[in-house]
Amino acid sequence: MSGILLKWGDIVNKTLNYIKDKLKIMPQIGLILGSGLGVLAEEITNPVFLPYQDIPGFPVSTVEGHAGRLVTGELAGVPVLTMQGRFHYYEGYEMDKVTFPIRVMQGLGIKQLLVTNAAGGINLSFEPGSIMIITDHINLMGTNPLIGSNRDDFGPRFPDMTLAYCPQLQRVVKTVAQDLQITVKEGVYVGVTGPSYETPAEIRYLRAIGADAVGMSTVPEVIIANHGGMSVLGISCITNMAAGVTGQRLNHNEVIETANKVRENLRLLLLGIINNLRQVTNEGL
Ligand code: HPA
Fold first, then answer.
1. Over the stretch 27-57, which tens digit does the pLDDT of each residue have?
2. Which of 122-131, 200-209, 258-267 bottoms out in mean pLDDT, i.e. has the lowest?
3. Average pLDDT, rounded, for the chain
4. Residue 165: φ, ψ to 5°
């Protein structure tokens, strides 16, 4: 094992020790809350707040709308570890920084990861405010967080991505959504680096290759979670139709405003999902 890898492993251990010391519960589910959705962490009972800047080894988030802290506690009676704000590649963080929190979750024994994000709608049947279950992704970030020597103790060199988004978890969402009478769409998420939004020509290209929604996150975290043997559920909040679809111009305020409007439905959905999640694993598929 190279010196660099050892050093990185040490950082994870230092981070884990710090977090374990502060925890009152052992979290079972990891939750990443995307742009405008971080307030869901306020639902957590008996919360422990760990600002990223206080956690050894953690990068610090810079984007507006991201509080930048871990929140642990209970959601719907289930112990969770929530990232309120995530690290984006476009902020200048290397992929190992972007995905570091997932390794921490893995180290804490978390087996299920719920990822939410804001995304632009490519599928013409979507509208701003649509909620999309991610069934699969396309990595157009031009890199992969697993590039480099493999940490065999973290996962295999060539991880299978056939079930990158756990089908059983997707079924849970559909059942819960039906009960709550919340409409959910399904589709393929394409991850791009940003930070510029796409051009209309790029959106036509992304539609042609099979993408339903586009965003600047999620793909790296999901790759690492799969490498680490976690089951993943991804949910996109379609905050805007992608460039060129409506003829209107895009801005970040619209993204935040739509996310705020969808928040209540997403809150109900996530609580329902977590309540149902305890027994579901990827095994037996
Ligand atoms: N493109 C990329 N990322 C996004 C978008 C978009 O239109 N909306 C929210 N995140």
1. 999 999 887 677 778 889 999 999 998 999 8
2. 258-267
3. 89
4. -115, 115
In the prediction, which pLDDT does 226 show?
98
Is residue 242 within 6 Å of ligand 1 at its C-beta? yes
Phi, psi of 271 (to 5 degrees): -65, -45
Residue 118 bears catalytic tag: yes
From 63, 239, 249, 257, mutation site for ligand 1 pocket: most ligand atoms within 8 A of C-beta: 239
Instruction: Read off the pTM.
Output: 0.92
CA of 151 to the centre of ligand 1 (A): 32
Q: Is 205 a catalytic residue?
A: no
Nearest atom of ligand 1 to the alpha carbon of 240: 8
| Catalytic choice (76, 216, 225, 230) | 216
Closest CA to 231 of 191, 186, 280, 267: 280
Q: Which CATH architecture has domain 3-277?
A: 3-Layer(aba) Sandwich (3.40)
Q: E strands within the chain?
A: 29-33, 45-51, 69-75, 78-84, 112-121, 131-139, 185-191, 213-215, 231-241
**Distance from residue 188's CA to the centre of ligand 1 (Å):** 14
